[in-house]
Every structure is written in structure tokens, then in C-alpha cells.
Design brief:
The structure is a single chain. The chain is built from 14 helices and 47 strands. It is of the alpha+beta class. It has a domain of 82 residues: Immunoglobulin-like (Sandwich). Strands 9, 10, 11, 12, 13, 16, 17, 19, 20, 24 and 25 form an 11-stranded antiparallel sheet that branches. Strands 26-27-30-33-36-37-38-39 form an 8-stranded parallel barrel, surrounded by 4 helices. Strands 40-41-42-47-44-45 form a 6-stranded antiparallel sheet. β41 and β42 form a beta hairpin. α7 runs parallel beside α8 and α12 packs parallel to α13. The chain is globular and about 75 Å long. Bound molecules: zinc ion.
Length: 749
């Protein structure tokens, strides 16, 4: 084996909270070395023993080896000395199906086709018969945070090939038997947050866990909630070092975790259930596993989150969005009036938005002629939507709308997607009975994995954006298929003997052997549509809603700008969904809708507003019904959000400084920006009459420094405190009223 030890130069951000999108700016250059094999030389062909290479960021180092018949991830090492050896060699697909017959595949390393540099490692394997190329790739797209992995398989055989399940990542990590471990994972706030949401489970001998995600949770009774597809596995004892991994894909995926003896096994990838999974690769086509990220961390779940959130922003996020200082925007949304929207209401809301200092008017469902007929209802909007957009723009506001653009229904006007139209009928994920009827904003989903359906949807979405002069497009409902009855689509045909179809509120949900493959194709088509739209309209914002938080994942994070994180909008549900989701995703991407809620006292009113102001805030209330005092309170709250909270929400570290909100006791979240030396604690008092005082033990501060505390509502006089006190006995907050709140600003002295 010939090794070269090469010096590579790569920028590493000294201040990643400030400019994570632009690792080139404000970054210092450091030199580091990798041990790289001269893959392109003939040396490896002569000596096909395992050859190793490592890939680093400032947070993780992984070892990779190119065996002659299979590659291998050899180790994951963190910075605090944590090091896990991986016992699992990659299992390349042993066989494929050609013309209905199983054909064994024999893979051999092709050193000349591979490459390795400081950011990217590719090992290439070839199967001579049937002829396929497999690329096993690892990439460090940022100087910090996790590395990413994907496998692509290209069909060079000239014939159609059917590929079995290929997992994205398989880990089998040597772990001391006596080491106490935990697994943290969080549920999506889909529909409504469950009583638990954030799970921290002991990973003891015999532990077996599986977490699933898809584009639209439709659980059977008793079935476990869907998760944001990632897990944090770490030692229970200080310094709580561990590894984390997640999937950058919105389709049907699963993550497993099993502990047995001195091994911890984890598999990430497409969900093989109900299966058997098979996917078609056309001649010249390719299959790509959902990309995964893998990193190492210390300091427990918030240590992981404070690395993962900026990484999502820097690597998956849209730089144009993050470069906009108004992001995350403050929004006035019409859903407080439900489907009863019209031009007069829209113009009134635009005027109110301007007065309150909000930055976008969001016209929710109810504006259209019908489902699949995405033209303004002429009775409600006699001058169309472009005139509403113009009215918003005249006031300096942005304009966005709700659409469920992959759904068809019964409208027959030109431009409507009608389920009885012969072309559309062939795209539907199931056959409809003759008496089928849509609901007022729900219809039947088309399978975007069909190229003609994808092209239709791309054109229609582009028309909507351009005709209505949109700055923001929200998609909702069951948009991306994950199961389909048809056998003439690019995905695998379903096994009809085991297929189940559930009818729910006008939409069908198909669970069949092909469900994962259907979702694989449909998600890729959905991504293509949004990637194209982003190229054509670079400033356009995408809200991912899907009935409130059903499509919260890292693939969506790479294709959208913010998420509706739950469909239940009371203060407690908003705080719960935020608490859970903010473990994994940047706070700025997490939207809470603030709905009408009983507010007998002004303290309750602020509590309601602030419960939705820890990330992206959308007001969803009839502001014309507010008292003058409530108007003034909101104006001040929005101004404070823009001036002091938004910069922290964008850039600061986030710490979960309480248990998950229960509405009974106190809860809170701390933001701390170590670069600027400022932060804030959102403090919420629960319903218990006797608990007028609480201490929040803070994190991220310097025990040897002093901090100035400012209590925004004046619940206590400003004071100076030693960092060590805030980190041990904690920050003392007194509030006289139940269901009230305070913002405590921190400033390093
Ligand atoms: Zn289909």
C-alpha cells in the first residue's frame, strides 16, 4: 500500500454563528492533513489490500477503507477523544433481477475511477455482469459539523434492472458493555404534539428501537408517531459525548438502533416495510440512496443541536434566504378566518399588517375556485390575486398563498385538474368510485413520480407563482405520494393481495409493497420541481406545511425555507412543538401559528404571542377585533422581535433550559450568542397557582464573567450576576400571574 500524506488547505469558520452560509468569509484558513491513498495510481491495483483514508471536519473524523470487494467505514472519532470502531463492512447488493430472473452481482474495486481529497471521498465498485457501477461517497460540505454519505448505483447493462433494498448507512459500533448510553429522538408535531414529543431513552442491553418518517403521517391506531429522521446517541455521564446521524430525505425512511453485548447497531435508509422492496433502474439510469449525515458531539443533546442547527443552515439551507436580514419574517395569516376569505378581508389584513409592523401577508386556504382549480374565486376576489399582491407590495409587505398543488378534484373549468380527465385519472394514486367528492380543501393526490404528472405540476406551480406575483408559496395536505395502486408508473407495481387503501376525508392512502418505492420517485420529483422553481425565482420562499408538521425532515430543509411545525396552535402546543423540533432544526425555520386563545389579562395576551415567537412567527388572529391596548402590545412585541429576538433566533446557540412544556409548571428556552456576548431567556409560567418563582439553570455562559440581566416586562429590576451563579443556582424569575411570561435579556459585561 502506498500512502501519501498531503497537506490540504481548507477554510474553517472561526465564527460559524455569524456567517455559516458563507464559509469563505470571516473565516481563518487552517492547514490540516489527511492520510490519503493514491487511488488513481496503479499501486492499489497491484496491492488490493484495504486502503484507508480519513475525512475530517472540525467536529468529526471518519476512517474509510476501500476493500477489494466492498468498502467500509472503519471508525467515527469525535474531538473529545471519543472513538467508535465500526465492525460492519458495507454489504453491496448481492443480486439484482433481470427479466424476472435473479442474477448474482460480483463487485470489484475500480481504483482508477475513485478519488479522495480533503472534502470528498469516492470509492467505485463495478459489477461486470450485469454491468453496474456503484459509487460509495463521503463528503464534508462544511468545515464543521457532520459528514454526508450516499451510494449511487448506475445501470450500464442496457437492460432494465430491479434492485433490492440498499440501506443508506449501516453501523455496528464497538461500545463498552458497561457504558450507560442514551438515545434522543423527537417526534414531528404532525397534527398535534403528543404528550411526550422529545424522547430520551436508556440504551441498555437488548434495546431495540425503530423510528419512521414519511411525507405524510397516517398512523394506524396505536402506531408510534413519526420522527424527524435523526438520532443522537451519547454517554449518560459527563461529557455526554456521542454520535448523531440523520436522513436527508422526505420519503418513507426508517432508523433502527439495537444494543447487544459490546455492539450498538444502527441502520438508516429507506423503510423496507411492508416490502419486499424493489426498484427499477432503466438502462442508463441510476438509483441513489437517501443521503445521510453522520457526526460526533459532546455536551449532550444541546451540544449536538448547536452543531447540527448551524450545519443545516450552512449546508442544506438556501443562502439567499439566510442572507435576507428579514428572515425569519413576521407574518399575518388569514386562517384565523378559515375559508371565509375575500378581497375586503385581504385588504383589511394588509392595512393591519402594515400598522402592526408585520412583514408578509399570507393568504391561506379559501381563495381558490376549488381543489385542483387553483384560480381565484371570482366572487371572493373579483380583481384576482395579483391585485392583492400589488396592494401588499405597495405597503412594503411580501405576499404568499396556500396551495395543495398536487391534488385533483371535480372542477371542470379550463385549467382545473379534474379526476375524470383521462390523463389526470392515470396519475391518481388510486381509482375513485363514481360518487367520489372532494372536501372543501382536500382532494385526491397525483403521483408526481410519473414524469408527465411532474411536468404538469411544475408548470402549474410556476404559473401560480408568476400569475399571482408570489413571494412565498405554502404547500399543504397530502402532497407527495407514498403508495400507489398502479402498475404502469415508473415505481414498482403493488402486490395487490397485501395492499390496503384507507379513505380519509376525500384522500386515499395506499399502503402496499411498493409504498417506499412510490415515495422514493415522488419525493425526487417534488425536489426537482422546487429546485427548478428556486432557480427561476431565487427570492421565492417555500413554506412546508403538510397539515402542520407532517413533512419536517432534512430533505425538506434542503428544499424549503421554513416549516409549519404543528397544526394545533394554542400556546402550549406551539411551545411543545418548538421544544421538540428545535433539537434538530434551525429555530428560524420553525413556524408557529398564533391563534385566538382566551386572554382575560394582558399578561395572558403576551404569553400567547411569545409562545409563538421563539422561531418564525405567523399571527393567525382577527386583529380587527383587538382592543387598542392589544394593538399597542403587539406592535411593541413585533418591534422587539425584529430588533432583539430575530438576530438571536437566526444566529445564537439554543439551550433547552427546562423540561418539555406541560402548561402546569414553568418552562423556558435560552438563546446565547457567544460572539456578540448577548442572549435571551424566554420564561413561561404554567397554571400552578403556588409556583410564582422559578430558577432556570442556564448553559453556554462563562462562569468567570459577569452578565447584565434586563427583565423586559419589569418583573424584576435590571441587575448584574456572575456567570457561575447562572450556571449553578440559576436565573431567578418571579411572575405574579399564572400563564404569563417574561423575556430576560443577557449581556456580557
Ligand atoms: Zn404511482
Amino acid at each position: 500500500m502506498i500512502e501519501i500524506r498531503a497537506l490540504h488547505h481548507r477554510p474553517i469558520c472561526g465564527d460559524r454563528q455569524e456567517t455559516p452560509n458563507n464559509p469563505q468569509s470571516e473565516c481563518r484558513w487552517i492547514a490540516f492533513s489527511i492520510t490519503a491513498l493514491l487511488l488513481a495510481s496503479g499501486a492499489m491495483a497491484q496491492q488490493p489490500r484495504d486502503a484507508s483514508v480519513s475525512l475530517n471536519t472540525s467536529d468529526v473524523r471518519i476512517g474509510l477503507s476501500a476493500g477489494s470487494e466492498a468498502p467500509r467505514l472503519t471508525r467515527i472519532a469525535g474531538l473529545a477523544g471519543a472513538d467508535w470502531l465500526n465492525q460492519q463492512p458495507e454489504t453491496l447488493p448481492q443480486s439484482v433481477e433481470v427479466n424476472g430472473a435473479k442474477v448474482a452481482a460480483a463487485w470489484h474495486l475500480k481504483p482508477a475511477l475513485g478519488s479522495a481529497d480533503a472534502r470528498h471521498v469516492v470509492f467505485v465498485y463495478e459489477s461486470a455482469e450485469p454491468h453496474m457501477l456503484l459509487r460509495w461517497q463521503w463528503e464534508a460540505r462544511a468545515a464543521f459539523g457532520p459528514v454526508e454519505h450516499r451510494i449511487t448505483i448506475e445501470n450500464l447493462s442496457g437492460q432494465e434492472i430491479w434492485l433490492p433494498m440498499v440501506d443508506s448507512l449501516r453501523l455496528n459500533l464497538q461500545t463498552p458493555q458497561d457504558m450507560a448510553l442514551r438515545n434522543l429522538y423527537v417526534e414531528k408535531g404532525a397534527d398535534t404534539p403528543s404528550p411526550q414529543g422529545t424522547h430520551v431513552e436508556p440504551v441498555s442491553e437488548g434495546y431495540r428501537w425503530i423510528g419512521k418518517s414519511s411525507t405524510y403521517a397516517f398512523p394506524s391506531p396505536g402506531e408510534q408517531r413519526e420522527i424527524i429522521p435523526a438520532l443522537f446517541v451519547y454517554g449518560e455521564d459527563h461529557p455526554q459525548s456521542g454520535w448523531f446521524a440523520g436522513i436527508e430525505f422526505s420519503g418513507r425512511t426508517r432508523i433502527t438502533l439495537v444494543r447487544s453485548g459490546d455492539r450498538v447497531e444502527s441502520v438508516l435508509g429507506l423503510n423496507p416495510e411492508p416490502g419486499p422492496f424493489a426498484t427499477r433502474i432503466e438502462p442508463g439510469g441510476r438509483f441513489e440512496t437517501p443521503p445521510v449525515f453522520l457526526g460526533a458531539f459532546t455536551a449532550g443533546p444541546d451540544g449536538a443541536g448547536n452543531q447540527l442547527r448551524p450545519w443545516v443552515r450552512a449546508v442544506l439551507g438556501n443562502p439567499r434566504t439566510w442572507n435576507d436580514p428579514q428572515y425569519p419574517l413576521t407574518v399575518n395569516n388569514s386562517w384565523g378566518s378559515g375559508m371565509q376569505v375575500d378581497e375586503a378581508l385581504a385588504l383589511r389584513m394588509i392595512a393591519q399588517s402594515k400598522e402592526l409592523g408585520l412583514e408578509m401577508f399570507h393568504l391561506d386556504a379559501g381563495w381558490f375556485r376549488g381543489v385542483g382549480d387553483w384560480y381565484p374565486d371570482a366572487k371572493k376576489f373579483p380583481h384576482g390575486l395579483a391585485s392583492i399582491a400589488d396592494a401588499a407590495h405597495m405597503q412594503g409587505l411580501r405576499f404568499g398563498i396556500w396551495v395543495d398543488w398536487s391534488q385533483a378534484a371535480l372542477d371542470t373549468e379550463p385549467g382545473a385538474l379534474n379526476v375524470h380527465n383521462p390523463a389526470a385519472r392515470g396519475w391518481l394514486i388510486s381509482d375513485l368510485p363514481p360518487n367520489w367528492k372532494p372536501e372543501e380543501f382536500k382532494g385526491q393526490t397525483i403521483d408526481l413520480g410519473v414524469p408527465a404528472a411532474r411536468d404538469y405540476a411544475a408548470k402549474e406551480v410556476k404559473r401560480i407563482v408568476e400569475d399571482y406575483r408570489l413571494d412565498m408559496l405554502e404547500h399543504d395536505g397530502y402532497l407527495v405520494a407514498q403508495g400507489c395502486v398502479r402498475d404502469d408508473h415508473p415505481h414498482a407495481p403493488p402486490n395487490r393481495s397485501t395492499m390496503r387503501i384507507v379513505h380519509d376525508w376525500a384522500s386515499d392512502f395506499v399502503l402496499a409493497s411498493n409504498s417506499t418505492d412510490v415515495s422514493y420517485h415522488a419525493v425526487r420529483a417534488y425536489y426537482e420541481i422546487y429546485e427548478k422553481l428556486r432557480r427561476e425565482h431565487p427570492g421565492l420562499l417555500f413554506e412546508i406545511c403538510n397539515d402542520g408538521g407532517r413533512m419536517v425532515d432534512f430533505g425538506s430543509a434542503a428544499h424549503g425555507d421554513y416549516f409549519s411545525i404543528t397544526d394545533t396552535y394554542d400556546p402550549l402546543s406551539n411551545r411543545r412543538a418548538f421544544y421538540d423540533t428545535s433539537h434538530m432544526l434551525p429555530a428560524a425555520m420553525l413556524e408557529s401559528y398564533v391563534e385566538k386563545w382566551p386572554v382575560p389579562r394582558s399578561e395572558n395576551f403576551l404569553y400567547m404571542l411569545r409562545s409563538g415567537m421563539m422561531g418564525w412567527v405567523s399571527i393567525m388572529l382577527d386583529t380587527t377585533a383587538w382592543t387598542p391596548e392589544q394593538h399597542e402590545t403587539t406592535k411593541r412585541a413585533i418591534a422587539l422581535y425584529k430588533e432583539k429576538l430575530r438576530p438571536l433566533i437566526r444566529d445564537a446557540e439554543l439551550y433547552h433550559v427546562s423540561d418539555r412544556p406541560d402548561g402546569v409548571h414553568w418552562d423556558g428556552v435560552e438563546y446565547w450568542n457567544p460572539v456578540r456576548g448577548n442572549g435571551v431567556v424566554f420564561a413561561f409560567r404554567g397554571a400552578t397557582p403556588s409556583e410564582s418563582e422559578h430558577r432556570f439553570v442556564l448553559a453556554g455562559l462563562d462562569p468567570s464573567r459577569r452578565y447584565r440581566l434586563h427583565f423586559e416586562d419589569g418583573s424584576a429590576p435590571d441587575r448584574e450576576v456572575q456567570g457561575s451563579e447562572l450556571l449553578s443556582t440559576g436565573l431567578d424569575v418571579h411572575l405574579a400571574t399564572t400563564l404569563s411570561s417574561e423575556l430576560v435579556f443577557l449581556q456580557l459585561i
